[in-house]
Amino acid sequence: MFATNASRGLPRHRSRYPAERYTRWAMRGLVGGLVVALLWLVVAFHLRGQWMFALLFLVLAAGLAVTFTRRRLMSHRYVFPALAGMGVFVIFPLLYTVGISFSNYSSTNLLGEERVRAQFLARTYQAEGQAFDFRPFRRGETVRLFLEAEDGRALISAPLATAEAGEPLALDPAAAPPAGEPLGMREVIARRDRLQDLVLTTPDGVELRMAGLRSFAPLVPRYRENPDGSLTDLRDGHSLIPDRDTGFFVTEAGERLTPGWPVAVGSDNYARVLFDEDVRGPFLQIFVWTFAFAGLTVVFTLAVGFVLAVLLQWDQLRGKGLYRTLLILPYAVPAFISILIFKGMFNQHYGEINLILEGLFGIRPEWFTDPWLARTMLLIVNTWLGYPYMLLLCMGLIQSIPRDLFEASAVDGGGPLTNMAKITLPLILRPLTPLLIAAFAFNFNNFVLITLLTGGSPDIIGASTPAGTTDLLVSYTYRIAFQDAGQNFGLAAAIATLIFLLVAALSWLNLRLSKVEV
Amino acid sequence: MAMVQPRSIRARQLGAHLALLGFVALVVFPLLLVISISFREGNFASGSLIPERFSLEHWSLALGIPWERVDGSVVQPPFPVMLWLWNSVKVAVASSLLILLLSTTSAYAFARMRFQGKGPILKGMLIFQMFPPVLSLVALYALFDRLGDFVDGLGINTHGALILASLGGVALHIWTIKGYFESIDGSLEEAAMVDGASTWQAFRHILLPLSVPILMVVFILAFIMSIMEYPMASVLLLDEDKLTLAVGAQQYLADHNQRWGDFAAAAVLSGLPITLVFLLCQRWIVGGLTAGGVKG
Hints:
The complex is a heterodimer. Helix content of chain A is 55%, strand content 12%. Chain A has helices spanning 6-9, 18-48, 51-67, 74-100, 113-122, 185-190, 192-197, 268-275, 277-312, 320-327, 329-332, 335-345, 352-361, 371-399, 404-411, 416-444, 447-453, 473-482, 489-514; strands at residues 124-126, 132-139, 142-149, 154-157, 168-173, 181-182, 199-201, 207-210, 215-221, 223-225, 231-233, 239-243, 248-250, 256-257. In chain A, strands 2-3-4-5-7-8-9 form a seven-stranded mixed beta barrel. In chain A, helix 4 (74-100) packs across helix 19, helix 14 packs across helix 16 and helix 18 (473-482) packs antiparallel against helix 19. The longest helix of chain A has 36 residues, at 277-312. Chain A is elongated. In chain B, helix 3 (81-112) packs parallel to helix 6 (159-165).
């Protein structure tokens, strides 16, 4: 092992070889271009008011610029791209998640206040009283609309076919209905979709839209913005006041109007997890099951893997290579396929497992509707999926046990069981511990298994968030964030933050036990 | 070889073989079953492992070819499996190459250079590697949702987003390659540098050619991991024709409409190549996985 003084490696002077000069300039151009592109993103995000993202890209651009211009940081140039990748896609999401957990970010509070306000201001309603009754008339292939207001004003449209979808259609004053046959209600209904897309403009520039099967009416903006930031509902004159604590426009009666915008809500989400009965109950239940699932999985996979490893290390056994290959098959098949295979096999109605069980014992367990059977099924499947890893680890570690220990044991009359319990297990358990912790952490977050096999069902009764009896904390978080109709990102982020703390603790423990040398 | 052998050795050998065979049967049963089902007629057929009513219907559908039944009705393929497989392979190749590029250069620096903050960075990478991306999906979703407004091809529902997001997993590969670089003697590069090669040239022309095996392993490992990646793809991809196989395959077994037979054929078709690659390269892959593990 040696270390280079990196900065000595690259010559400072202009290279004699044109090719090298060009590559060097190309590299500089690339870095420069990247920095400019990133700065453009910074400005774009800043203009949108998304300062977290602007900051992220600013840090990235600055890091890039500094690393690739300072000669002192020559070694860091090699590391920077990978670190930037981890920074943007691991560390930033982590911090951002923690940030979200203190906000009410959800599907109802998705966009910023300005865009919510713009949405309200873009809302329109159809002013009654100025409505026109309409009748379509057909002459040959062309269809025109004839509109009559209550005050007797009459207008006629250009032929319908001439308008592109979404483009306004001009209206002209008319004295009498056009020539041709009037179309009945049935044909109006048949063309309803086409008519609903239609925008008609009167000679004085008012836009009309279909307001019913018989009438077109002008669209008028529904809200007006006041200087103090409140909105006035033009239909009834009530005003909407922006409440920046809750992130909603509120009426005078205190009613919230959706959509709102994300605002900081302090530790509300954490309070919900810890004190709200409807959330805390399922949360605790899922918490306990997550620990039980991860712990039992490690125990079962280790037990199976260890016993098989001991068997496969037995000198007098033939065909070990073949056994080994067959035994690690579950590891080689992509998990998303084998989990789905089990989903089909455990199917309560026609799955092979229930067919066999019925043939042998006359029972048909309800694997997907009974919580305990569902949990049992998950453990069976996960043991099948996970033991090959333990098998491989144990085989590697057993090989490093000095042979003379077994010789001595044999001389003293120790059998294979004694060897296994008194020599092999104690000797490999110590180096195995950090790996077991890693396996525990992995299964603690075994999202794919739960999602593909049970989806968390059967559901916990009485929970206000989507929560299942087989959900792990991760899949629970995922469902709150992406499956629930409410898409409560804030609450999901709060639970994710709690899991971060647990994972960090496990990870720290792991690092301590494995004594990594760097 | 033990010198002291008990007399009951034969009985024990037999017992061990029986136990192993029984266990192997249990393990292999689901896989054989699925192969068998893929050749059975209909979606709910049950029967022995060797199909009684042999049919290529499911295979034809999995390959995207409409199948004409005996009674003349034509069945259309329910899902674009081949397209999903192609999407998966596309994303996996691109992200593996990207990962390989970035992790090789970083591993070189970590293995051969002395620089500020090296120890903490390496340790930090190990810690952050343990945080599953599932937990920060909300943040990743928000990131790509907004990025997509400015950069085409990096928004939600693009493969670019998925490829880029896979960069979060480089730490494992950096550790693997770093371990290999450290096992190669540095004197060759030193000699090259004495002769006037730059650091980059020593890396590019001396160390890289020596490291082709580990680069292959890391590529295959990253490829397999990317093919099997589920959580991020399930959030970032929306349209049916954009899905990767890992996300799409579950649609066969949706609660209301289970297509067991069609799934079996698609599963064998897409799972077999990956399984074979894994088994062929198992010696190196397992070495890489467990060595990375033993070191932390």
